[in-house]
Structure formats: structure tokens, C-alpha cells
Amino acid sequence: MPSLPTFHTARLMLKQRTLDDLQACLVMDRDPDVTRFIPGPWADPIRHEAFVRERITANFGRGFGYWSVFSQENPDRFLGWILLIPRDGAGPEIEIGWRFKRDVWGKGFATEAAKPVLEYALETLDLDRIVADIDPDNSGSIRVALKIGMADEGLHEHDGAPWRSFVMQRRTL
Asked: Is the pLDDT of residue 66 over 70?
């Protein structure tokens, strides 16, 4: 698995997600409010663990993957994660996404963590376009997408469900 750079912001440290983060990810996902807008095997502990383990160990290609997000103040405190991977795991478009523990919602962590990942994607990886698909009822994630400068491209259907598409083009930075 190619390594990802570590990022530091005023309050956060983002480092490549590893199997050391597995249990923290599973605990976060067991909160039904955290996974409410995301289809997945959250109710089946065996499938859930296999899914997260596969995502942690997957090779999404050079420069792509998941970052675990920790507090700078307490580097052992797992807050959530940010991803930059091929859309649906296969591409060709590249998506950004985030998931955070409910007790840190509304504190600006997702916005703060997404900014260095976007900058890395556009400047270091030289991507021209990054997408985010968000459940239309997920107002918190929609706010994050707008705060980081993504443009709302409206509703579309994917796998039989409605999603709101957000896009960051190089020119919008």
C-alpha cells in the first residue's frame, strides 16, 4: 500500500489510516447517527469489520486512500477520517469524503481536515476535478462541502438512491 503524507493543521493531525485505527473506526460506525446517511454493512459485525479492514488495506493507487484524523492536543484521540479515493473504489473520478465521531460534530473538524487533502489533491497530485456525493438530507456534510469551496451540481441517482453531487474544479480554488 503506497504511503500518504501526514498533514498538520491548527487543531488536527491527519495520518494514513492503518489497522491500528480499526477498532476506533468500528466504534464510530456503530453509532447509527454517524452512518445514517451512508449505506453499508454497519448492522452486521462480521461484514462491517471485513469491510473496514478491506478499506484500510486496499491499494487505491499512488496518493489515494484514507487519513485518520486525530487531535493535535491529544494525538491518541481518534476523531474520524477523510478519504481521497477513486469514486466507488474504481473511478475514473476521484472523490473526497469524511466521517467523524458524533461528539465532535459542529466543531469545524471536517472542514479543517478536508482543506489540506484538497490542496494536496489539486497541487501535488495535479487533479483537475474532485467530487463528493452526499445524501440530500445530510445537511452537516453539505455544509462542509460548501465551506471547502465545492460547487453544488444538484441531485442525481446512484444505485437507486438520490445523491447531491458537489464538485471542486481546479479553477475554483
From this structure: yes
Hey, is 53 helix, strand or coil? helix
**Residue whose cell numbers read 473504489:** 89
Please name the helix (run of DSSP H) or strand (run of DSSP E) that holds residue 62, with its range, or none. none
Domains of the chain, residue spans: 7-172
pTM: 0.93
Residue indicated by cell numbers 489540506: 116
Distances 97 to 46, 123, 144, 145 between C-alpha atoms, Å: 24, 18, 10, 9
Q: Does 140 have pLDDT greater than 90?
A: yes
Nearby residues of 56 by Cβ (< 8 Å), 6 or more positions away: 17, 18, 19, 21, 22, 25, 66
User: What is the CATH T-level fold of the domain 7-172, as seen in this structure?
Assistant: Aminopeptidase (3.40.630)
pLDDT value of residue 170? 80
Compute the average pLDDT of residues 67-93.
91
Classify the phi-psi angles of 109: left when phi > 0, otherwise alpha if psi is within -120 to 50, otherwise beta.
alpha
User: What is the full DSSP assignment across 114-157?
Assistant: HHHHHHIIIIIS--SEEEEEE-TT-HHHHHHHHHTTPEEEEEEE
